[in-house]
Every structure is written in structure tokens, then in C-alpha cells.
Amino acid sequence: MDPGDIRLIYLIFFFLELGWGTFLSLLNIAQIHKNREKTPEWLAGLVEEDTYKRAVRYNLERCRFSLVSDVFSSFAILSLVFSGALGSLDALLRGLGLSAYPAGILFIFAVSLIFYFLSLPFSLYSHFVVEERHGFNKMTPALFAKDAVKGLALSALVSAPLLLALFWFMDTAGRLWWIIAFAFTAAFQLFISLVYPLVIAPLFNKFAPLAEGSLKEKISALAQKLSFGVKGIFVMDGSRRSHHSNAYFTGLGRAKRVVLFDTLLASLSEGEILAVLAHEIGHEKKKHLYKRLAASCALLFAAFGIVNILYRWEPLFAAFGFSAVSCQGIFVILGFCSGPFTFFLTPLFTAASRRHEYQADRYAGAAGFARELESALLRLGKDNLANLTPHPLYSFYHYSHPTLAERIAALRKAVVP
Length: 417
Known about the structure:
72% helix, Zincin-like, 15 helices, mainly alpha
């Protein structure tokens, strides 16, 4: 197969993905617009008309903006691939007199920075126009810049040693390099997940122990009742950046901790907060995190297997504008190919995620929090101006959580009269 054939195949899958994504977005926009005037019957008495119309305006603007952003990003990728810019940049960095590994790491960093700066105007518009207009943004330009610098520095600090190790494995570990590289990468990712709540998250947010009082006592009692070991209960200053609210568990094994957004504490009652936490405990009890880790490892193993097959295939590199094969080149090429050649698998992953959410909801219901969880979901949906009328095909493809209507229906069905 020559480089021209490879480019043609890439183009076909590229436009299949872009066309499918655009079609779904337009379907979703039309669905929201169709239901913009009247609150759906299932929401009667649950969501105020003014709140519903605010949610419609917010989601229409977000969906339209996302569509424009996605199309722009797609054609930016296409421009890089077919202009020969990737190969020129790789040759430029190789010509600086650096050894192969630093040049390769700089190449991957440079490509990442190109896309970061291309997406920066959209990120700024999203935060300071869309989110601001609808009352969610609390981030200042200074905080945005500070987060950006920290994020870029952290990304470089974390990815540089990983890339250095991968390049070394590819050069020196023989035919089974990719199995060794997979094992190292999986262990590295596990290490990052362990240190994230202790080292990385505090770089961006403040975490304070939940104050003594009724809520803390009830959370501790809930954890004890459900045999859930937790290292601590913390409140995160999410309100510094947004009015959106959330709660989550982080850490593995005995290092698990509960994290509550301060916006969540201000929005929900104690019973509703307990219901949300019971849902999160359900994920733990059902071993969802470990199942997702196993799925992630399987995908990572497959990815390294593909790298092993392709990274010496010269026509592939030529098709993407490279003059020679390289370790860094194959990772960038497969990064560009991953979306177009795997987008049809997305519903498998979103369906699995939604199944886990249903199971966690049922666990919370069985623990006695069905009505409180329904109330919490409604409150969070209203406060976050969630899309209450997504197109079924759009939500089937994109949503990692069931829609609000689906979750409430399932909860009511599970409640024993």
C-alpha cells in the first residue's frame, strides 16, 4: 500500500467521524429547539418554567459553540496532516543537534502546544462568554492563566519521563518491547492516580476537612453502615472557578477520600448529599473503578500492539509527511488516527458507563436513599442547567450518564411501594 492509498483511507474515516458527529450535534440542537417553548410532561411540577427556558438557552448556545469548535479542530488536524507540517517540524527539531530522545520529546510537546494554542480562543470564549453569560463562570483571567501555566508545566513534568522510557524500550528491549512498555505505562498511570489526590489536585484547588457537625457525623455513620472505609472528608473550593457542583471519591485502597464541592454543600440538603455519596459508594461496592481500570488496560495493551505492528512501516510515515520513521512520529500519527478509526466503538463505552450509573443508583436506592437521590438529581440538573431534552441518538452515543428522565424513571421503578 502506498502513501496515497493510506491518505485516502484516512480521509474516508476522518470525514465519516466528522460527518457523524456533526449529524448528531445538529439532531440534538433541533431536539432542544423543538422543545424550547414547553416544559416536557414528565417535568411538570418538578422544574420551573423559567429554569427550563434558561436551560434551553444555555444548552443551545453550548451545542452550537461546540459544533463550531469541533469542526475547526477537525480541519486544523487535517491541515497539519496534509500540509507536511508534521514532517517539517520533526526535521527541524532533529536538525537542532539534539540527541534522538530529547528531539522526540520536544516534537510531541510542540505538536501538543500547537493544538493547545489553537484551542485557546475557544476555551476563553467558553469560560468568559458562554459560561459567564449563563451565570456559571467564577474564574478570573488571572486564575485562568495561572491554571494554564500549571497545567502545561505539570503535563511536561509527567509526560517527559514516560516518553523517555517508552523511546528507550522501543530501541533496546527487542521484539517484546511493547509488552514491557505496556506494563510500565499501566504502572505509571496507576501511580499517578494514587498521588493525584495528595499531590496534583491541591496544586489547583484547596481542600479543607469538612467542619465538625451534623453532616460530617451523618457521612461517617453512612460510611460505617455501608462498610466503606474512607480516609477523610474534604470540601473543595469549586466556587473559585464555577457555580457547577459535584462530589466524588478519589484514591484507591485505604487512601480513599470523599470530596465535596462547596457549591454542592450550598445547593443540596444533608439527606440529598448523603444520597449522592451513597451513589458513589455504590460505584465502589460494584467494583466499577477496577472494571474501568481493567478495560483501560486492555485498550492500552491493544494500542501498544498496534504501535508495534506499525511503527516501522515507512509508507504510513510518508503518508503523514514524515521523511523517516521515528518513535515520536508513530505516537503522533496514531493520536491523529485514534478518533477516525475507533469512533464507532464509542457507544460500547458510553453504554457500559451508563450501566454502572444505573447500578450505583440502585445501590443508593436499596440503601434507603431513592427519593433523596431523585431530589438531588433534579436539584443538580436545575442548578447546572442540564439538557433535559437531548436527542435519544445523541445521548446514546455521547452520554456517559443516563439522561435525567431515564435516571428518575429507573429510580421510581426500583422503589417498592
